[in-house]
Design goal:
single chain; 210 residues; mainly alpha; Four Helix Bundle (Hemerythrin (Met), subunit A); 6 helices; 62% helix
């Protein structure tokens, strides 16, 4: 197995670490999580969210690294084409699902991902994955296209700022209910929707009977 594929698998391992951290029963065990005071008064960054954000950022950057190395060293494989988008979706979708709501232990967290954003992004991924499955049954491997990469980057950027509780944008003091991070979330949803439409149009032949 080449290095780019190993990096992809390492990203999947980071997803497991991230999920374990975020869904750990801190409240049930009576563990109090401290907050780091940044931004406006009463709007700090929860320590667990900060650690999760760092893990998520490292995993996100690894997505760029494995693709870059695979192309540079001419090590693009069918395994990489298949597993790389799966690793991306596991990372992004698991974070989206958690960030819909704010857990009790995140006392100063005020930013969450709007449910509509999560529905659009995960719904798009389910449709694309279904097409990949049909293609795989026919012996075809459909690689991710540039539009899919753009939507993944948009999602990753939005999620990082959700973990950071809208910092440093929180200093802007926007009206209640508005935040730069929420805008980034909706941009990610639009990018996801558009990339899904483009993906279906480009690969509609997969759904046609031979």
């Amino acid at each position: 197995m080449n290095l780019p594929n190993k990096i992809t698998l390492a990203r999947m391992a980071l997803v497991i670490v991230l999920i374990g951290l975020l869904f750990f029963p801190f409240t049930a065990l009576g563990i109090t999580i401290p907050n780091i005071n940044v931004g406006l008064p009463g709007q700090g960054i929860n320590l667990v969210y900060l650690i999760a954000g760092i893990i998520f950022l490292i995993a996100s950057l690894s997505d760029f690294v494995d693709g870059y190395l695979a192309r540079k060293w001419n090590q693009v494989t069918n395994f990489g084409k298949f597993m790389d988008p799966i690793a991306d979706k596991l990372l992004v979708d698991s974070a989206f699902i958690f960030l819909i709501s704010i857990p009790a232990w995140a006392s100063e967290q005020v930013i969450s991902v709007p449910s509509l954003v999560v529905i659009l992004c995960i719904g798009r991924d389910l449709i694309v994955d279904a097409m990949r499955l049909v293609a795989a049954q026919r012996g075809q491997v459909i690689a991710a296209n540039i539009f899919g990469k753009i939507k993944t980057v948009a999602e990753m950027v939005a999620i990082v700022f959700v973990f950071l509780n809208d910092w440093p944008f929180s200093y802007l003091g926007l009206p209640q209910g508005w935040s730069v991070t929420h805008i980034l979330c909706y941009v990610a949803a639009i990018a996801s929707l558009l990339s899904g439409v483009i993906y279906i149009v480009q690969n509609v032949h997969v759904l046609k009977d031979k």
